[in-house]
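Format notes (please read before filing issues)

Several people have asked whether sequences and structure tokens are stored in separate files. They are not. Every record keeps both together, in the order shown below: the sequence lines, then the token lines. Line labels are part of the format and must not be stripped during preprocessing.
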Amino acid sequence: MNLPNKLSLLRIILIPITLLFMLPISIYGFEPTAWNTFINDYGMYIAAIVFVIASLTDLVDGKIARKYNLITNLGKFLDSLADKMLVISVLIALVDLGRISSVWVAIIVLREFMVTGIRLMASQNGVVMAAEMIGKIKTVTQMVAITYLMFESLLIKVIHHFASCNLENLTSVVQYIGDGLFLICVIMTIISGMDYLLHNSNYFKESK
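Then the structure lines:
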């Protein structure tokens, strides 16, 4: 297995680590108090750092694959799969934490199911589809929005520490920016999904 594919696998491995620090543990009444207190106070910051590292592997593996001609069908599959797993997992965690609406996450998940379906139909014709540029832009907007949302509470704490003006208004501004970035990523998700659908509609035609 070449280095780009190993980086894609690393991105998948980092997903449960990210979630571990994002969400307090609550399993059928088992709730470790000390651990959950730590997670509520500092866990999101650690999770955000792990998420950023995972996101950077997406940038690095593609550059290495292109530079050293290490592009493979397995690499195309793993890269796309790792992106989807990372983004969807963290978005679901943010829904669980009450920061974003499940409606928007459902739209993103449905788009990914649709694209995955198109990829499956393409693979039946011997075609392994690499990510299109608009799909890569979509992924970047998703990761930027998620990173901001994960660091949002830290940003609010920093503002509360240094600011002397109306803190409630500043907090609202920080949250509005997060909402705006997330809305942009949802819009890009819809646009890229429609682009995939329009450019690959031939796979929906019955073979004669």
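For reference, the curators noted about this record: The chain has a mean pLDDT of 88. The longest helix spans residues 33-67.
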